[in-house]
């Protein structure tokens, strides 16, 4: 909820406002090639949730953000992700690259075997339509990048 002067009033409003400011800072600068900038943006977008949220940053061929889409909402420790829905969302905006992200409300960001498996399934599915997966970032106490860890 916003106050009459449009000032954010909840933690989620404040985090959302911060994410918009960060996104504007990086628009047209290919900043989403930089894992640190991407982790900063995603932290403001996803850190405030009390349940798992799986999101996709859809990028053009210059890695500029077309759309950020929170696709799946789960429970405190899991979110079901459907590759078909990810492919549909990517095709709808004609993205040529993506970055996956989800939060771990517990704060622990070590990738689980389920995280690795869904990343592989999504990468394989998007590979069939020539969409590159640049990274999968887990948001928690210390964000973890699959690309930086050599998991992609």
How is this structure best described in words?
It is built from four helices and five strands; from the N terminus they run ααββαβαββ. The chain has helices spanning 11-26, 35-46, 83-92, 113-127; strands at residues 53-59, 65-73, 97-103, 132-139, 144-145. Helix 3 (83-92) crosses helix 4 (113-127). By secondary structure, it is an alpha+beta fold.
Quick summary of this structure?
By secondary structure, the chain is of the alpha+beta class.
In CATH, the topology is named: Cytidine Deaminase, domain 2
Distance N terminus to C terminus?
39 Å
Low-confidence residue ranges: none
Counting structural domains, the number is: 1
- Give the CATH architecture: 3-Layer(aba) Sandwich
CATH class call: Alpha Beta
CATH evolutionary superfamily: Cytidine Deaminase, domain 2
Count of β-strands: 5
Rounded mean pLDDT score = 87
Label this structure with key terms.
152 residues; Cytidine Deaminase, domain 2; five-stranded mixed sheet
In terms of topology, how is this protein built?
Elements: H1 11-26, H2 35-46, E1 53-59, E2 65-73, H3 83-92, E3 97-103, H4 113-127, E4 132-139, E5 144-145
Helix pairs in contact: 1-2, 3-4
């Amino acid at each position: 909820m916003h106050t009459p002067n449009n000032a954010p009033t909840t933690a989620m409003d404040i985090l959302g406002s911060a994410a918009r400011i960060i996104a504007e800072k990086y628009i047209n600068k290919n900043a989403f090639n930089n894992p640190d900038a991407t982790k900063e943006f995603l932290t403001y977008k996803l850190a405030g949730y009390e349940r798992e949220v799986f999101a996709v940053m859809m990028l053009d061929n210059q890695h500029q953000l077309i759309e950020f889409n929170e696709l799946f909402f789960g429970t405190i420790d899991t979110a079901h992700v459907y590759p078909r829905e990810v492919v549909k969302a990517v095709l709808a905006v004609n993205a040529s690259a993506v970055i996956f992200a989800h939060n771990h409300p517990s704060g622990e960001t070590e990738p689980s075997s389920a995280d690795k498996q869904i990343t592989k399934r999504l990468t394989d599915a998007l590979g069939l339509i020539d969409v590159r997966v640049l990274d999968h970032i887990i948001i928690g106490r210390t964000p973890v990048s699959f690309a930086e860890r050599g998991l992609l």
